[in-house]
Amino acid sequence: MAKYIVHQSGPLRGEVQISGAKNAVLPLMAAALLSEEECVIRDVPILRDVSLMKKILTSLGSEIHELGENILSVTTKDILSTEADFELVNKMRASILVMGPLLARKGRARIPLPGGCAIGARPIDLHLKGFEALGAQLTVGDDYVEAVAGPQGLIGDTLYLDFPSVGATENIMMAAVLADGVTYIENAAKEPEIVDLANFLNKMGAKIKGAGTDTIKIEGVKTLGGAKHTVVPDRIEAGTFMLAAAITRGAVHICNTLPDHLKPIIAKLRECGVRIEVGDDDLIVRGDLGPQFATDIKTLPYPGFPTDIQSPFMAYLTTVEGSSTVIETVFENRFMHVAQLGKMGASIETAGNKANVRGNAKLRGCQVMATDLRAGAALVLAGLVAEGTTEISEIYHIERGYEKFIEKFSKLGATIVRVDD
Ligand code: UD1
Hints:
The protein is α+β, with helices and mostly antiparallel strands. It has 14 helices and 23 strands. The strands form 6 sheets. A 4-stranded mixed sheet has the order 21-22-1-23. Strand 15 (275-278) and strand 16 form a beta hairpin. Helix 5 (125-133) packs parallel to helix 6 and helix 11 (336-343) runs parallel beside helix 12 (373-385). Bound molecules: uridine-diphosphate-N-acetylglucosamine (UD1).
């Protein structure tokens, strides 16, 4: 199994280009199943999760070509199978996103229950509730779920999500675009990736309004055509590099980003004493201008503080003056990095979904494990400032979601080496 060896580094300095968002490109690729025409997606990050989604789409009948380094062409003249492969789906939770498009286009979808990062139970009840509201009949087996539309196909309706789930909002939106009549998704997720998906679907000919607000209105259409689209920049990757600047007390220019999507991270870092200059599509993060102090964070659905930045931010909070409280409200089991940071010398106490982080930790390198994607990023950040070297195992998690990770960090002056055991 491959590992990262992270060496203690000085302040990171320089410029980093942010890639297209993992969490946007996966639903966009799934949406390409909705049309028999060609969809061209630009700024596609080269990631393990994208390769997996390519394999899943190909197994369902899509033809996929690379038109350039980060450009994918996806054409699905016909859906050859409405059943996704167990091995592929089991590796990535986002594979559930093919269910809405399959159901919309073929009236049927059978999916093994999805895998992915082990951050809690992560049920799919809200996705299924949505499909049911559109008239699908569900069968849930031990290790699969099947949805079948009625003879008239899916029928638009009003439905309310008990929680603004990102995946459920996307899946239901994709199911509803070809339904008969109008669908309203109430208490919808408002993440930028939802807006990106709605923009792409509208380019394909869908009639979606209100994406990015609590209520999304989808007027069903008969067919969708092809479209060309550029993926929105990855706000979680941008946040990770902002924290890399802060934790190493460096200065990093973050390019190709949308600062509007980063408001909670900008606000919280400023509270800690980091200076941030905000441009139209870039940021300069100065962690090198004086002492930094504790702050409290609480994760929430967008536009609240993103759960995906909770663990990298916690790594940073171990290095500031004073004690901070971190509350995780989106996932019920997202403190697995705490034990790993503890091995490195951090002092963090947890009780339920609340963590108390003592600052001024003297971190030291040791052997740790990336328990999920963002936990892995947190350990890399901690490793950059820990004395000695930090050996991180299970790095496939990190490679699921960060494009050219080592290359980007190296350009900023870090030394991270990937070794095969
Ligand atoms: C997406 C992101 C992930 C991010 C998360 C929250 C992708 C590929 N992944 O994941 O990086 O951390 O949003 O911002 O976009 N839930 C249910 N029932 C459901 C669906 C979700 O109870 O049917 C719960 C989950 O267990 C979790 C919460 O809702 O506690 C949020 O999940 P959700 O917003 O659906 O996250 P994902 O779409 O899986």
